[in-house]
């Protein structure tokens, strides 16, 4: 029977849930693993705050160093970058294994942390950094370890998925759906990290690094949120058989990887399209396993604690293994080359006067850029455009075949200059066969 | 850099896929794991047969003992019970780690095998025995290790899910859908293991043992297949908002477990209901993680090989770990007590003459057995019953609240004796909030 001391730094929502799980399920975990995991210290600067679970008084401290000194596994749950990084590096320097849920830090400065852990041959667990309780990091590192990973498509942010679900189902506009999300506690007072796509981008960056075995510069990740999504496009897409999702995408393309987050149309019949509300899901395609999907609660105190504790258990097994074999993870490829000129299908909407010759003009420009049109939808509906109230302006939707992002952007710049095109064109990427 | 010799016994569909994966992705696996996994021997009695991948001549043998002698990890893929068991036990006796996809053997005689592996402190991997390439065993053993598992609901057999999907979507009858499944290669010439529920039952027995930490007597598992599913009930269920699935269920109820496989209605809006065609999915509910779902191809050469190789890699890591810490699995609870008198909601269909007083008579019997009616649907449609052509016989559907299986069975026996009830009543269990 092994014995492992666990300490937590940062007792917010997830920290409290983790303490609760480690105490409440201690016997069960001992039975399952043959290892006794004992929570020895929990550090936080504020012990006055009301929490869902009362951490026993004798475990509380305000000094994070006390946690590091007394633990074999240090759980970092303070969040943010600066202090969290200091905590993790100090723990590693002290020879402790580390478990963290800090996607922000790992996505932007993971290299320094992973290199430090590797240098010291210490286990670092980060299951809780992506997809809450869904064991997707373990699936990538171990369950699918024999596969070359071809694609990862994820719905990795519950707030935006809730908003898009409501826009799709109830035809709400973005502001109304956001307001509703805030009222239900699904969106924070300042929701920008979520709705502008950064949270999902941090998560897909971590998955991409794991899947493709190298570090990437987070600045290379293309990030576009849902703030500017017009309900008209959600509606037109629905009519064409598509559901709009904020997809986080990682793909290997030759020697490069595409890593991007943006609103994306996927076929409404696909499994990912049916992931609704605050749920998260990750579709991973491997060369042997084909397409697999992992689904669950992507946030919240208890689900995230489940992931943290799974890592704590792995760290414990690692510590009891005298020859220290780390779980499969390969940073051998060095820096990943991120391809920015990605190759996708596109949904384009132009607001145009209902006159002959308009489509021809737009189609000509697309042809000049080698962009092939798959289908066209012109609706008999009138767009309300400020200053053009007298005219009949209609939405013209063009679905393209696969084209390069740069060509699309250049074509759109040119089309925008055409006198027939009122307002800025709308561009939404389309992912075929998401699942 | 570690070095692990791998041998395969049984080179059928999955064996061939496994050999292909180990050879084709050898470099990738070495990079990811830091371990070289070398396929050293493959045994089969027939090397004349055409295979999707040609196993190199120098690896082939017809003598399984040669595989055991020359490998560190022995992969058993012969299937069946007798010879497979002999192979596994001989490999363990020789001190080799074992990987197997043999659900039939593990479900019915797993105890002997797991005890032998435990006694010798050897790794035994069986990810491929459930859900093809979906890493669900790993999720239960490791990814969700901190959780008390409350429920497992699985669509674990692709053949039956294909048939039920076609019956639901196209209103086909069972025989037509089965014929179609055979034509598409989704059902075997003798499909009884699949359609009578045995395959799913083997799989849920394995998941139940893992989740609840004890062995169970496979004879205690309630198994009912889809052979007698009437398309009328699929249709009536659809109207009530339900989709019919062959669900494999494991639940902890007090100190007992329910382990059962039967056609089950679930709400059409739930994620499990949307798992269509030959895909598999497993929903696992834990006390902390909440509901998670794992989804993918539940069979086939390549997906299953992906699971086999994940186990081979785990076995390799285990072998290189001198202190030999096994992944969490707990058989400490001894024999699991299987509860047969389960507690569920029910869909009941009675074919009755369209006359006053019929519902009252049936409702009285149900009341006598403490079965509470949730809703009633009487359709204005005529059932064709042999010998009663002159009468207007209509289907009367009753959805009950939760009731005990024994009470339902006893009530049905009594109702069947009522002169107003033509034909045998139909009973289908209903699972609320499957996801």
Automatic annotation (TrEMBL), chains A, B:
This is Homoserine dehydrogenase. GO terms for molecular function: homoserine dehydrogenase activity; NADP binding. L-homoserine binds at residue 188. PANTHER family: HOMOSERINE DEHYDROGENASE. Keywords: Amino-acid biosynthesis, Methionine biosynthesis, NADP, Oxidoreductase, Threonine biosynthesis. NADP(+) binds at residues 9-16. The keyword Oxidoreductase applies. It catalyses: L-homoserine + NADP(+) = L-aspartate 4-semialdehyde + NADPH + H(+). Residues 347-429 form the ACT domain. NADPH binds at residue 103. It is an enzyme of class 1 (oxidoreductase). It comes from the Bacteria. The keyword NADP applies. Coiled coil: none annotated. Its EC number is 1.1.1.3. One of its GO terms (biological process) is methionine biosynthetic process. InterPro entries: ACT-like_dom_sf, ACT_dom, Asp/hSer_DH_NAD-bd, HDH, HDH_cat, HDH_CS, NAD(P)-bd_dom_sf. NCBIfam families: PRK06349.1 (NF004976). The active site is at 203 (proton donor). Belongs to the homoserine dehydrogenase family. Pathway: Amino-acid biosynthesis; L-methionine biosynthesis via de novo pathway; L-homoserine from L-aspartate: step 3/3; Amino-acid biosynthesis; L-threonine biosynthesis; L-threonine from L-aspartate: step 3/5.
């Amino acid at each position: 029977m092994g014995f492992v001391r666990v300490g937590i730094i940062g007792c917010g929502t997830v920290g409290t849930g983790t303490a609760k799980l480690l105490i409440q399920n201690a016997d069960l975990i001992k039975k399952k693993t043959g290892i006794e995991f004992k929570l020895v210290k929990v550090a936080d600067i504020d012990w006055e705050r009301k929490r869902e679970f009362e951490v026993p008084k004798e475990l509380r401290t305000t000094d994070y160093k006390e946690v590091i000194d007394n633990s074999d596994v240090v759980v970092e749950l303070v969040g943010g970058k600066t202090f969290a990084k200091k905590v993790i590096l100090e723990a590693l320097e002290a020879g402790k294994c580390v478990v963290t849920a800090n996607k922000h830090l790992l996505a932007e400065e993971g290299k320094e942390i992973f290199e430090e852990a590797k240098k010291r041959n210490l286990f670092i667990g980060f299951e809780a950094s992506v997809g809450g309780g869904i064991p997707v990091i373990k699936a990538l590192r171990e369950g699918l370890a024999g596969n070359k990973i071809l694609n990862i498509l994820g719905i990795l942010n519950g707030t935006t998925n809730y908003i898009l679900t409501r826009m799709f189902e109830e035809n709400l506009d973005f502001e109304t759906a956001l307001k509703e999300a805030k009222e239900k506690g699904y969106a924070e007072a300042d929701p920008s990290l979520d709705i502008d796509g950064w949270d999902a981008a941090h998560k897909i960056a971590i998955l991409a690094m794991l899947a493709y075995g190298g570090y990437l510069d987070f600045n290379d990740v293309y990030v576009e949120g849902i703030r500017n999504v017009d309900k008209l496009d959600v509606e037109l897409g629905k009519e064409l058989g598509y559901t709009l999702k904020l997809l986080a995408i990682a793909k290997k393309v030759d020697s490069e990887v595409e890593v991007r987050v943006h609103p994306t149309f996927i076929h409404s019949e696909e499994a990912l399209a049916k992931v609704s509300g605050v749920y998260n899901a990750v579709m991973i395609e491997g060369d042997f396993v084909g397409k697999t999907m992992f689904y669950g609660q992507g946030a919240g105190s208890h689900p995230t604690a489940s992931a943290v504790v799974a890592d704590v258990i792995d760290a414990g097994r690692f510590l009891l293994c005298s020859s220290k074999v780390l779980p499969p993870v390969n940073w051998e490829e060095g820096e990943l080359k991120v391809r920015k000129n990605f190759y996708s299908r596109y949904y384009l909407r132009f607001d145009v006067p209902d006159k002959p010759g308009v489509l021809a003009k737009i189609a000509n420009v697309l042809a000049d850029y080698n962009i092939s049109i798959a289908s066209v939808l012109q609706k008999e509906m009138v767009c309300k455009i400020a200053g053009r109230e007298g005219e009949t302006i209609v939405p013209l939707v063009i679905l393209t075949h696969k084209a390069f992002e740069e060509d699309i952007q250049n074509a759109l710049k040119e089309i925008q200059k055409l006198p027939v095109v009122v307002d800025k064109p709308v561009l939404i990427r389309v992912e075929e066969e998401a699942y």
